[in-house]
Design goal:
Radius of gyration: 25 Å
Helix content: under 10%
Strand content: over 45%
CATH class: Mainly Beta
CATH superfamily: TonB-dependent receptor, beta-barrel domain
Number of helices: 5
Shape: globular
């Protein structure tokens, strides 16, 4: 596998010379920027101008992310799915909200950051690979940058929308809306969404118990135009989810609450090399409370609350000239993470059992990133980036420190580590072909669970997990190819290839000399560093505009990952296929039929509780209509998912929990 990785990297480097002058030239404008030339995957969030083109406008943020070619969503129920990039686990990517770092509070990974947002908060998501996601340390597999939907300045005007949706399978009710005021100097935007769903039904009508959830989300944005060059903006998000069931786990969540706020200042000079200078202060707090009080026949009832508080800043300068673009990004944050577990004794004569599953850890980081792109000629751009972070972890709780010293007697409170990274990208854009070749080196430190977790029970492989606070940095060398080729005026080919060689790969390894703590645990695993792991992710998509208004999209994805002296990596998707036929008449109606298929899961990781799974295929269909009512637009969209009501599960479903069966839905959005 390593030889294949090296040979493929050399091939990617050679390809730039072979493609040097194959296709026609494109017009060059001095105003062209680096962002225009890069081939990134952008996920547009509705409601918005393109919502009729989206399969289900009022879908959750996780469902939007699932549509990206590089993203797999790990599910533990109907709520809070976890995003993997290029087949690598979530610890290996970074997620930011307009530059803000937010960290989850759950030891069982039941609250990814995306679960504290709603589609009403966002305009789009930018997915960057490892050679272009290095603005923040730890981006082994890349990054997801969530862009807020903010207000805009203009003539005095009040606008907004009202949203309503319903899904039949789990009686999922959705209601929400937004209100925006704009003026030449001041603008504001308010949005809110409420969701409530009951237990869903798998194919054939089988009820999946403990899959219910409810969620309320509110956001506010204020923008003040100080002068022609200066703007001040404030953002606030409040998210409150209650009674969340996780059918694949032993516990549910009574409450998951997130509060996120920021203030930013932007300077945009009218002339000179500085294009913009933005600085932001932010703070957020996450509270996540697991309990099993609604589960029947629980031998010992447990509560597992967790807290994560983050305070941070960044300052970013963009400089631009005719021949080069420069980005300088300075950022820092301070995070406090703590999680507890209390086992309540059924015998009043016995004491309850208490322990810290995250032993109270401060994480402080200061990060400097520099990026420069040179426009070699009207078609070619070369970009280089260099970054480094200093990260310090400190165990502030004495009880938590003494608990870990059972396994690491000489463990100190503090650990300071340096995290370097660098990348080089070569981009070429012609009238028919655009492509990017990239090579990068990235590092990451162990996550809180990997470094400091204390008896974290995994329900899939039935093992307790112990953190390892002396793990070395994980180091990755990756190479990538992204291309877009107009084969014909009506046929477009896009594709990507990502190859990873990761040294000191962090994974849980069984320790026969350790005793389990949890009642259902069959053993103990401790996080260790394997010599290396190799992974490849390939994706190809063909879009054919058959006739005016009719488009046929086909996408194929393949991933393979193995670790030295371990075998197959867990949660690696088998080959998959997506085929969509779209008919779109902007003045009348839109229709869409989608076929999804995945081959059998043969390359599974048995040591992580995985097993062989059959392949499957499903069909979805939808109809939409844009209606004008007194010069206002109303979108009506109806559809069905899993049309054949197939009972199936996938590699990404924790404990092989079944997916949702046939589901009819209706979305209505009124713009005013």
């Amino acid at each position: 596998m390593y030889k294949i990785f090296v040979c493929s990297s050399l091939f990617l480097a050679l390809a730039s010379s072979l493609y040097g002058s194959s296709f026609g030239s494109a017009a060059f404008s001095p105003a062209d920027t680096l962002e225009h030339k890069e081939l990134k995957e952008v996920i547009v969030i509705a409601p918005g101008v393109s919502e009729q083109h989206i399969n289900k406008p009022l879908a959750s943020l996780e469902q939007y992310l699932e549509g990206a070619s590089a993203v797999d969503m790990v599910r533990r129920g109907a709520y809070a799915w976890e995003a993997q990039l290029f087949g690598l686990s979530p610890e290996r990517n970074t997620i930011s909200i307009d530059g803000m770092r937010v960290f989850p509070a759950c030891t069982d990974r039941m609250d990814p950051i995306t679960s504290y947002l709603e589609i009403g908060n966002l305009s789009q998501v930018t997915l960057s690979g490892p050679s272009d996601g290095g603005k923040y340390a730890g981006s082994i597999s890349g990054s997801l940058e969530l862009h807020r939907k903010g207000p805009s300045l203009g003539a005095n005007r009040l606008s907004g929308n009202i949203q309503s949706g319903f899904e039949t399978n789990n009686n999922h009710k959705i209601i929400g809306g937004s209100l925006e005021w704009q003026s030449p100097r001041f603008a504001s935007r308010l949005s809110g969404t409420y969701r409530k769903a009951e237990n869903y039904l798998a194919g054939g009508g089988r009820q999946i118990d403990f899959s219910q959830f409810s969620k309320a989300n509110f956001s506010a944005n204020l923008l003040y135009h100080i002068s022609d060059r200066h703007e001040l903006e404030g953002d606030f998000i409040y998210d409150d989810a209650r009674d969340i069931g996780y059918p694949s786990l032993a516990m549910d969540v009574s409450s998951a609450q997130g509060v996120i706020g920021s203030v930013s200042y932007t300077y945009r000079p009218k002339s000179g090399s500085i294009k913009s200078w933005e600085s932001k202060l932010y703070a957020n707090t996450i509270t996540h409370i697991m309990d099993d009080s609604k589960r029947p026949d629980v031998p010992i009832r447990m509560d597992m609350p967790g807290w994560s508080d983050t305070y941070g800043f960044y300052s970013q300068v963009k400089l631009d000239s005719r021949s080069r673009s420069t980005l300088i990004h300075l950022s820092g944050y301070h995070n406090r993470a703590r999680a507890e577990m209390t086992m309540f004794s059924p015998n009043s004569q016995e004491k309850d059992m208490f322990m810290l599953t995250w032993p109270g850890v401060y994480t402080g980081s200061i990060d400097l990133y520099f990026e420069q792109a040179w426009r070699l000629d009207p078609q070619r751009t070369l970009k280089a980036s260099l970054g480094g972070a200093l990260q310090n972890n400190r165990i502030y709780d004495d009880f938590g420190l003494e608990s870990l010293r059972v396994f690491y007697p000489d463990l100190g409170r503090d650990r300071l580590q340096g995290l370097p990274r660098l990348a080089i990208d070569y981009m070429k854009s012609t009238s028919r072909l655009s492509y990017t070749l990239g090579v990068s080196y990235n590092t990451r430190a162990a996550s809180i669970s990997e470094g400091y977790g204390f008896y974290l029970f995994n329900t899939q492989d039935l093992h307790d997990y112990i953190g390892n606070p002396i793990l070395p940095l994980e180091k990755s060398i990756s190479s990538s190819l992204n291309l877009n080729y107009a084969m014909h005026p009506k046929i477009e080919l896009t594709g990507s290839l990502e190859l990873f060689h990761i040294k000191d790969y962090i994974l849980g390894i069984t320790k026969e000399d350790m005793s389990a703590m949890s009642m259902s645990a069959e053993g103990v695993k401790r996080y260790e560093s394997l010599a290396y792991a190799n992974l490849g992710h390939a994706n190809i998509q063909v879009n054919w505009k058959v006739v005016n208004g009719l488009e046929w999209q086909n996408r194929f994805t393949y991933i393979r990952g193995k670790a030295e002296n371990f075998g197959n990596l867990p949660f690696i998707a088998p080959a998959s296929m997506l085929s969509t036929l779209k008919w779109m008449d902007p003045k009348w109606v839109g229709a869409e039929v989608t076929w999804r298929a995945q081959s059998a899961h043969r390359d599974y990781s048995s040591s992580y509780g995985e097993e062989y799974l059959k392949g499957y295929h499903t069909f979805d269909a939808s109809l939409s209509r844009n209606i004008k009512v007194q010069q206002k637009h109303v979108l009506v969209k109806v559809g069905v998912e899993n049309l054949m009501d197939k009972y199936y599960t996938t590699f990404a479903d924790w404990n092989r929990i079944a997916r949702m069966g046939r589901n009819f839905y209706a979305n209505l959005i009124w713009h005013f």
